[in-house]
């Protein structure tokens, strides 16, 4: 029985192109008690491998967090499979607006300690004591209330390219940091202000809202399904769209355009731009915003040093990388002294 991938990403890409079939990009999550995450992981892998599902899925004792692409013609089968798992029956599926055949190239189902690396000690508070969930229409109404503080629960590189009008966007690298900053900012208003929060797909707010209630906030609201679901409801119900720019997403597209506004700048020349890229130097891989002109001039690199490195023979590059831990740990995501226009 096959429990892991055998094809490389390149091989998958070719296969997908040849098959040319329509796929749906979607995500879902659920906090639930999972007794044996490894067994559950194998159950998912076997079923989804058979259904030609691709994506990145995390399973933990606390639940599941999944980002997937499903062949459109097998969606019904996929849905029936989910409904057959008691804690996933009728789970809300966030379906991406822009569909992309190649949003994922492999099926990866991983067992983790947590479904979101949130840095929180769950023993200290009740994660099921969540905030009030609001849909797009209610959310639009709520954020016009002068007594509301609207908080973006995402990281700096996400809110930089798009956020709700008038939202507080903490300049943080991690979810854990934003929790503390917001609590400090609002410490005198735990009872009188309404705290309204949002994130990409809603999962971070599930934890954050419970955390703030535990910390004494009396009026906590969260955007159900996050920006992804908001954008869908706004479109389907013809509501006013109060989000500006792009929604950062974690597949290879890196951003889903919500409005035509470009609110950020190329980190190298300062021109308006909201396209994220990863530095072409394998040993760097810095996530940053780069315009097409700089992409050409800098060969998709973040710095002169990285350009020099990518011109070295592959063997030499490999030798340089040896002993250097995972590049994500060298740079804080999306920050580097070398980027002139990164605030
Ligand atoms: Zn530029
Ligand atoms: Zn670089």
Automatic annotation (TrEMBL):
<comment type="similarity">
    <text>Belongs to the TrhO family.</text>
</comment>
<dbReference type="InterPro" id="IPR036873">
    <property type="entry name" value="Rhodanese-like_dom_sf"/>
</dbReference>
<dbReference type="InterPro" id="IPR040503">
    <property type="entry name" value="TRHO_N"/>
</dbReference>
<dbReference type="Pfam" id="PF12368">
    <property type="entry name" value="Rhodanese_C"/>
</dbReference>
<comment type="function">
    <text>Catalyzes oxygen-dependent 5-hydroxyuridine (ho5U) modification at position 34 in tRNAs, the first step in 5-carboxymethoxyuridine (cmo5U) biosynthesis. May be part of an alternate pathway, which is able to bypass cmo5U biogenesis in a subset of tRNAs under aerobic conditions.</text>
</comment>
<feature type="domain" description="Rhodanese">
    <location>
        <begin position="144"/>
        <end position="239"/>
    </location>
</feature>
<dbReference type="InterPro" id="IPR001763">
    <property type="entry name" value="Rhodanese-like_dom"/>
</dbReference>
<protein>
    <recommendedName>
        <fullName>tRNA uridine(34) hydroxylase</fullName>
        <ecNumber>1.14.-.-</ecNumber>
    </recommendedName>
</protein>
<dbReference type="InterPro" id="IPR022111">
    <property type="entry name" value="Rhodanese_C"/>
</dbReference>
<dbReference type="InterPro" id="IPR020936">
    <property type="entry name" value="TrhO"/>
</dbReference>
<keyword id="KW-0819">tRNA processing</keyword>
<dbReference type="Pfam" id="PF17773">
    <property type="entry name" value="UPF0176_N"/>
</dbReference>
<dbReference type="GO" id="GO:0016705">
    <property type="term" value="F:oxidoreductase activity, acting on paired donors, with incorporation or reduction of molecular oxygen"/>
</dbReference>
<dbReference type="Pfam" id="PF00581">
    <property type="entry name" value="Rhodanese"/>
</dbReference>
<keyword id="KW-0560">Oxidoreductase</keyword>
<dbReference type="GO" id="GO:0006400">
    <property type="term" value="P:tRNA modification"/>
</dbReference>
